[in-house]
Amino acid sequence: MGSTQGTDEARAALLARLSRIEGQVRGVRRMVEDGRACAEVLPQLRSVIQALCRVQDLTLNQHLRRCLRESFGAEAGGERERKAEEVFLLLSRYREP
Q: Which of 25-29, 38-42, 90-94 shows the lowest per-residue confidence on average (mean pLDDT)?
């Protein structure tokens, strides 16, 4: 199984997203501690879930592309890239949030 790192830039982008998500979770925690209404907390929770799903999608995308490159050789073929995108879109469309 491959590394979750991808390129240094991709890894940095994922880490930045995760840092923002950590901040969102701390904010939700404060809302709960302060006794904020459920109707105020729920949209924030949904936002955190969606952000985590996006990190999951990006990680899956990196892994899929790396696997395809390793399976079919180092050169980047247009058809291979289109197929990778097609599979990634299908996986992200049908996964549970």
A: 90-94
Residues in the chain, overall count: 97
Contact 88, 54 (CB under 8 A): no
Q: Is the separation of the CB atoms in 6 and 17 below 8 Å?
A: no
**Does this model's pTM top 0.85?**
no
The per-residue b/e assignment along 58-89, b for 16 or more CB within 10 angstroms, e otherwise, is beebbbbbbebbeeeeeeeeeebeeebeeebe
- Which DSSP string do the residues of 51-64 spell out, in sequence order? HHHHHHHHHHHHHH
Confidence class for position 31, pLDDT limits 50, 70, 90: very high
- The string of DSSP codes covering 6-43 is -SHHHHHHHHHHHHHHHHHHHHHHHHHHTT--HHHHHH
Residue 14: Cβ within 10 Å count: 18
Q: Which amino acid is at 81?
A: E
